[in-house]
Structure formats: structure tokens, C-alpha cells
Amino acid sequence: MTKTPMLSRVADSLFWMARYLERAEHTARLLDVHLHSALDLTPAAANRRWRRLLTALHSPLASEHVSPYAITQALIFDTTNSDSIAACITAARDNARQVRERISSEMWEQVNRLYLYLRTTSMEEMWTGEPHLFFRSVKEGVHLFQGITDATLSHDEGWWFIQIGRYLERAMATAALMDVHFCTLDSQDATTLDYFEWVALLKSCTAFEAYCKVYTASVHPEDVAEFLLLNAEFPRSIRFAADMIQEAAQAIGQSGARHAMARVERLAGRLRAALDYGQVDEIMMDMHTYLMTIRRMCAQVHDALYQACISYSADEALR
Amino acid sequence: MFVSYDVDIAYDEMFAAPGQPRAQYLPLYDRLASLSAEELHRRQRAADAAFLNQGITFAVYGHGDGTEKIFPYDLIPRIITAAEWSVIERGLTQRIVALNMFLRDVYHEGRILADGVVPRELVYSCRHYRREMRGVHVPRNVYIAIVGTDLVRDADGRFLVLEDNLRVPSGVSYMLVNRQVMKRTFPTLFDRYNVRPTDHYGQALLETLRALDPLQRPDPTIVLLTPGVYNSAYFEHTFLARQMGVQLVEGRDLLVHDNRVYMRTTAGLQRVDVIYRRIDDDFLDPLAFRPDSALGVAGLFNAYRAGNVGLGNAIGTGVADDKAIYAFVPRIIRYYLGEDPILPNVDTYLAYNETDRRYILDNLDKLVIKAVGESGGYGMLIGPHSTGEQREEFRRRILADPRNYIAQPTVMLSRAACFVDGRVEPRHVDLRPYILYGEGVVIVPGGLTRVALRRGSLVVNSSQGGGSKDTWVLND
């Protein structure tokens, strides 16, 4: 029996379902760390922090003119802000709904549950209660979804589209987050104040404990960079994400022999090589350019994947 | 269990007379009489849970939060004997073959119109008549490949045809799932019965669609075209696609290039040979029909006309299930086949016809008035239950547009035993068997028995409080 190929629309929905959930989890994680550590800061330092956070999330909000309450609300509940947690989870659910018969019913139930949780939680309730519990619920909700996906969905082409969406989002978001830290903090010298900032960066990637196991609790910017960029074992490092992106690109290429995927595989291989053979002392000389290159390479993989499998032109495909 | 069961003038499916079950119902009656109400309740809950867990639900419109409900299901099967089924099967086959010949004729030579058997004006004024289909060759000359015909039973127990659904009939998934759920939750009821299976419907549907491939290639690519997840029948679309092992596509997954239809896959464009479309004619192709439709595929009609793709059903079949044309079906059968109809029609008066119109207007309080283009119980006046004001309203409408109205006497639908509020009580039912027409006519033995769950109600539509039950066709 010949295997029927997957519809492009289905691949598109699976890919974005995964990306939006990853994005929601990333925002929840950043806000959680931020609100927690802001308690130790002077108002001026806290304000700098907010600015960094908003830059890392590409948010158009200006931190000077609004209260932490308003920023938090905009980042969580404002559905007119397409990157808010609520908007991301709604978008993920809409995508899941489009392919409901293709994913497992357990996956659908979990994403629907998460969506209903967001809808029934109010900002006041969250803010005056324990914000940390709210963020934990969002993060765990997404992790549970990923676990359910791995356990209940066949690891076929569709599953690989989910993986590649998730890890592209992760690599790009982590690169953006690192970029604002390395641009605004003095990375040559970690003073006491900055020490907390570097720890906050690690915690924002749930990486503090894993970092300590490798480098001990002495935090140096160069080690932080090496860990978050180049560590092959830590699942939130960019290098780890690049490995997964390459693996997914190869698996998608194999599930239907097609030459258009060759370009995607080559670009994914190049991204991985840039991290595989990266030297942290060289990278540190111009971190910003390096991170921009990584982000551009991720965007290229995304575009090439779409051109190969999803939004190719009919004329080209028929030639 | 049967204490409050009354037998009135309507034909009763289970009882020949009060306390006297018909022979085919005797084992079932004995079994039910031996069970407690709690036992039946338990089975009912298990069945409801099975529907919910399998996601056999329809969306409740107007709620964004994913609220869904199940189509009510009644535990007690409806039984059709082999002799009764044989009449239904022959009658439906005869009717579908004749209606198909009628469609071919109307869109080609128009012999039946020239001979004055069906008024030309009635055909051309039908809202579902598609001028674009004139002279178009349809694979195998099969216009109506998938049909669901509504049958009712009069007080004498005769099966009558109430309506032909020749466009996009739905509900077959419930026929199949009702049986699956019945087998799972109440297997003991099947003891002492020899019920004909329905499981092969998916395969039979696939064979029918294969037959529509205009190029007759050995392994044609077949797809099911759905309007999308927001359609109330979306569950059925996913169910049938799975049963057949074909892709479930939306309009945006397809494109037409050089009069050929392709679907977009991750491995590139793949040629499509046959489309089982669950989208109405109007929305099928924005270039040929409604230009504001976002559900269809631009250029599909030209690809069809060029003979590069098969469609089930063909375009323009609605002209043959128009309620005014319905009145002519017995004459259509005699005209093409030279046979008397095996399944009679319900008496029908056409407001279009002057003598009929006078009769209708004089008897508005006794008749059921229907608008010809509507379905699902909309645009209807039920005379005996109407107010003077409503009758005046319909009198005005009929005089303004006589072509658009027909009238029928109130049919007393037969009643079947249902489990309601802890007791077994009779409720009115109809029957929709599903007919497939590819290489030949195939009717999977069974159908969807729809139940008017409100006591005394004659309306079985799901939008108006209807439910359904499993339908057993027995072997000899």
C-alpha cells in the first residue's frame, strides 16, 4: 500500500500549533522569573529589567509609561496583542482544532483544557493571589501537552512538523533573550548587581541548576554564553534545538523522497555546524552579530521548509 | 415496563394489538420485559458515554468554548423483516434508476419535457436547476451516486416515500455508529436474532466513488471535500474519510491547473481523480457559481466539464428532489421504466396547478404546506396545528408565488417503542436508507431511524428535538 502524503494545510497547522505553545510557555517562564526577582530590585533597576524583557519578547509596549500591572496584563491576557499568552494559546487551539482528526484526542483535550483555564482566570485574581502558581500552570500545561504528544501520536511526518516548529521557536526566542542581556550588561565583569542579572537569565531558561552542575555556582558571562549556546545536552540550549531541527528536517525529507527538501536539510545542517564548531571566546567578541546570524539561519530554515512543503507555487510544483 | 404503552391509530412497529407483539419483535419484547428500569438506565448511560468519548458530537453554534452535545440515541432497536426490506430495496432501486435517467434527460435531450410528462416550466424554474450542466457528459451517466431517501409508514404499515435527498444527504455515520454502540453496550439483545451487517458501507462507498473516475485508472485518488471544522456535519466527514482511508480536504487544499484538479501535500501536488463533495452546488466553484464562496475550488466546474475529475454527486441534481417535481416521480418511473412505482408517494397538491391551488386554499387547516426549496422542517405550515393568522400568511405567500408551494395531507407516521423516562413508550419514527449508485445500485441493509422524542410530535429533525435508534434488517 502506498503511503498517502500529508496535506500541506495539516503540516502548517501542526507546525504553528507547536510554535504558539512554545511561545506561550516562553513568555510565562520569563514573566515568572521576572516578577519573582523584581522584588529584590531598586525601581530604576526594575525598570531596566522591564525594558529588557519587552525587547526580548519583541513587544511594542514602552515600559516607561505603564505600570508592572499593565505590562503583565498585556503580556498575559490582552488578546489584541498577538504575542500574549492568551492569544498564543488561542491560536494553538485554533490550529489544533483544524487538524483535530489528525492529532490524538488526548492532545486535543489538553490544549482545550489549557485554553479554558486561561479563559476562566482573571487578571485581578492572578495578580492578588499567587502569580507563580498561574505561571506554573501554564508551563506545566504546555509540558503536559508535549508529553502527551510524544506518548500518543505516531512519530510520523506530522510529529516531526510539530518538533521542528517547537525547536525553531525555542532557538529564536532564546537567541533574542540572550541578545538583550549581552548587549545591555557588561559581559567582561560580573559585579554583584549584574550577578543577579546573569542568574535571572539562566533561570529564564530553566537553566540555573543545570548550569551549576557543569560550572558550579560561580557565574561568568562567558560560561553562561557557552552553556546556553553550545551545550549539547541541555534541552533549552540553542545547540540542542539545532540538533533537533536538523533531525526533523532529515526525517521530513525521508518520509517523502523529494528534492525540494534538500535545501532545508542543507540549511539546517549549516545552522547546526555554526553551533557545533563555535568557539565561545570568538563568539564573545561580537555576540550580537553571532546571535543575529543564528536567528537569520533559523528564519532561513523556516522559509525553506515552507517553500518546499507548504506554500510552494503551483507552477513550480508542476514543472 | 410496558404499562403506559398505548396503541393508537398510527401503525405500531412493535405491537399488532395491545399486548400482542409482532412475531419479529417477540424475542426483543421478552428480553426487555425481563429487565429492570435501572438496568436499561445503566445501558443508556453507557451508550451516551460511548458517543461522547468517541467525539460523536455536534458543535452547539454560538459558543466559542468548545461546548458540544450528542445526538440523542434510543436504546431499543427498530426491526425490519426480510420481506419488508425486499420491498424497500426494490422500490428504492427502481426510484433511483428512474430519477437518474430523468436527470440525464433533463440535461440533454429533454424528451420527458417534449412529451409533456413533466412541465418544462416547472423544471426550468427550479432553484436547483443548473443551466451550466446542459450537455455535460457525466461519468457513467451517474448523477446521483449517494442518496438518502426519507420513508414513512402510513396507518396500514405501507412504506411511502416522503422526500428524495439527491444533493448532499447526511446522517449515514449515525446509522453506522448506532450499530457499533448497540453491539458494545447491549450485545445480549442480538441473541435469537440474525441481523444483517452494515459495516461494509465505507467500502461500498469507496467502490461507488471509484466507479466515478472518468479515466477509470486502476488506483484513482479519491478525496472527501468538507466545508471545514465549523460545519455541523464535520464529524461525519472525518468519520467517512477514515472509513474509506481517503484524505479529508478543504477547498483551500485543492487547486485547478490546466483543467486538472490537484491537492497540496508536503510531497508536492497530487492529482485528484474523484471528489466526494459535501459542499452544496452554490459553493463549489466561485468562478461558476456563487462568487463569494470561500469554501470551493476555483475552476473545478471546468475541470469537471472537461472530464478530468469525477464528482459525487454531480452538479444540478437538486432539480430532481424539488418538492414540486416529487409529485411527478411516479410518472417519471412509468415514463422511463414502464413499471408501476413499488413505493408510493404521499399525495401531493401543487399550488402551481390551478385546481390543486383552489383545493389547497380551501383546506389550509387540514394540510401540511411546504416551500419547495426548503428542508429540515423550515418554511412549513402544519394546518391542523396552525393559527388563523399563520394560515392567512401562507395564503398570501402561495398566491404571490404558487410555484414555490406544495401541500400534503398530514401523514400519521408509524410509532416505535422507545425508552423514555424509565418506561417504554411509543414515539413517531421515519426511516432514511442510504443508496449508493456506481457500477450498480447498492443499498446497505439498514438506515437511520429518526425518532420524534417528544410525545405526540411528528417532527423527527435533529434541529427540533429528534433522536435516532439502531435499525435492524433481518435475514430470512
Give an overview in words.
- The complex is a heterodimer of chains A (319) and B (476).
- Chain A folds into two domains: 1-153, no CATH class; 157-319, no CATH class.
- Chain A has 319 residues and is an all-alpha fold.
- Chain A has helices spanning 8-37, 43-56, 68-76, 85-98, 105-120, 123-128, 131-152, 157-184, 192-204, 208-215, 221-230, 238-255, 260-276, 280-285, 287-310, 314-318.
- In chain A, α1 (8-37) runs antiparallel to α4 (85-98), α5 packs antiparallel against α7 and α8 (157-184) packs antiparallel against α11.
- Chain A contains 16 helices and no strands.
- Chain B is an alpha+beta fold and 476 residues long.
- In chain B, 29% of the residues lie in helices and 22% in strands.
- In chain B, α3 (82-106) packs across α12.
- Chain B is globular.
- Chain A binds chain B through residues 2, 4-9, 11, 97-98, 100-101, 105, 112, 115-116, 119, 157, 161, 252, 256, 258, 260, 309-310, 312, 314-315, 317-318, and chain B through 55, 65-66, 219, 229, 238, 241-242, 247-250, 252-253, 255, 257, 262-270.
